[in-house]
Amino acid sequence: MKLTAQEQSMLDGRDGKARQKAMELLVRYGEALAAERFVATDNIAGVPGSSNSFLQKYYQQKGGGGYDAIFSFFDLDSDELVEVPKATAHTCHLQGGYDPDNWQILGATPESFKISQESEAFIAGRGVQILKTCTPYLAGNVPKKGDHCAWMESSAVVYCNSVLGARTNTEGRESTSAAMLTGVIPDWGFHRDENRLGSHLIEVDFEIESVMDWGMLGYFVGEAVQERIPVLSGRFGSADLIRHKHFGAAAASSGGVEMYHIAGVTPEAPSVEAAFGGRKPVEVIPYGLAEKRRTYDNLNSKATDTQVDYVMLGCPHYSLGQIRSAAAMLEGRRVSANCKLWIFTSRAVKAVADAQGLSKQLRDGGAVLLTDTCSSISQAVPPGTKVAALDSAKQTHYLPAIMNIQAWFGSTQDCINAAVTGRWNGVRP
Amino acid sequence: MSVHIVMLKGRKVVGGVAEGEALVTRQTISGWGGINPMLGTVTETRHELRGVSFKDKILVFPGAKGSSGWSAVFHMTRLSGTAPKAMLFNEMTTKVALGAVVMRVPSITDFDRDPLEVIETGDWVKVDADRGLVEVRKAALGTGS
Lengths: 429, 145
Description:
The complex is a heterodimer. By secondary structure, chain A is an alpha/beta fold. Chain A is built from 17 helices and 14 strands. Chain A has three domains: 5-191; 197-298, no CATH class; 300-421, Aconitase, domain 3. Helix content of chain A is 40%, strand content 12%. Chain A has a five-stranded parallel sheet with strand order 12-11-10-13-14, with helices on both faces. Chain A has a four-stranded parallel sheet with strand order 8-7-6-9. A three-stranded parallel sheet of chain A has the order 3-2-4. Chain A is globular and about 65 Å long. Chain A starts with a helix and ends in an 8-residue tail after the last helix. In chain B, helix 1 (70-80) runs parallel beside helix 2. The longest helix of chain B has 11 residues, at 70-80. Chain B is an alpha/beta fold. The relative contact order of chain B is 0.29. The model of chain B has no long low-confidence stretch (mean pLDDT 93). In chain B, the strands form three sheets. Chain B has an eight-stranded mixed sheet. Chain B has a two-stranded parallel sheet with strand order 4-8. Chain B has a two-stranded antiparallel sheet with strand order 5-6. Chains A and B meet through helix 2, helix 3, helix 7 and helix 16 of A and strand 2, strand 8, helix 1 and helix 2 of B.
């Protein structure tokens, strides 16, 4: 890799041991990618320093407990213990740990809650913004078109590239923690114009309207194109922030979609032709009612029992508007005694939901509004859960495998109905 | 019985040498939510390798998919001793590149022939990532190409 004088200086250790180790890791990473240089970034979203009891015990046994040790050995993949300085680039912490107000509901032990609090304090002391959400763009971190970012969280990455027109690869924990100290990331993939063009054309032959429709379309597209760049043509009048959020999260789970274009909707696709940069699509894939039904059946292939113990909403973290509509659907009704309803969001959004009385409204209906995490991330479902109901294709992809439970997929209304009746009665499209 | 040996050449991702038994899948692999790093097994619900362990195997696969936790989860396989011995894959992504780096296992991509066509589960594979060379000893005669 070709390094600038400043990058070389960091690599030589003139800016401290931690920055040296961070540069060493980034050079190994850049070489693995066959990148030729770095690009400067001032917008990092990662999970620096986050810890669990496995990592704590592992490094304690190796003779280096404490948060500097976890950051050195795990985040920077360093063989040497270094003292972690303040972040050089603007950095936010994504989801993880436990809701500080509801950690007991999430089943955290006092020990694991203490670890999450300590790692949070450690990283806050390094200047990292504690957003604690998979939707940083709903909590104040909204890069502008063309900004080079280094983000983790596949659903945030695909949103960043596709909807905002900013530029990031799907970074990992180690690369974001190293970028936080150096302000650089390999100039590869989505940082470069030529890699942002469409590959596959998805022809959608009916209007995609509901959030559930967008989620299923995303799930189908991810499976169809894997990690390529789909370009959607069709009628997408309903495309709003929430629909993009569910579409991208689903496409990034069933496949590895990091960027998509919707002709006439997303910022780098004024037209289908422009989205392909004049090239021909490698494949044209139709999406009609048959594909939609097949996707619905795929998503619902992991459930047989209609008795529902648990309804989880908020994957990716709910917006204020989604919380308001869930609260409206629950109004005058109550969550069944045989079921739990948990809704996940960010701390920032919850603060507003509290102020608006939405949190209380949900509480009065028997639901709980939680922050920082989700059932998949924290491996936390209500005790005894056998069957869950979800309105997120992404969560449906992950939760049954992670928790070894059944899961139904449907609309938010289907899910709220299940929470109230304790029965799944979702409607196949 | 003569031994059928096939050679492949590719580009080094992470250097080093290793040899072992191949574990081949035509399906991409998720890290976070797709494997159990403590056991070294694939857990994704509809994956053809569900329940199968990649510990100490030469993992041959199309590439990585899914969550950005890929590198961190495969990083944990190194700590818990369940990592594969080497990785051979087709599709370069940031997930698999960073994962290979922090797993510190010899890894190769950009092959002159598709490793998924040439290598089958059970073949004995020698990986020299520094030189980008893979030697495949076919487990059975007349299979593969």
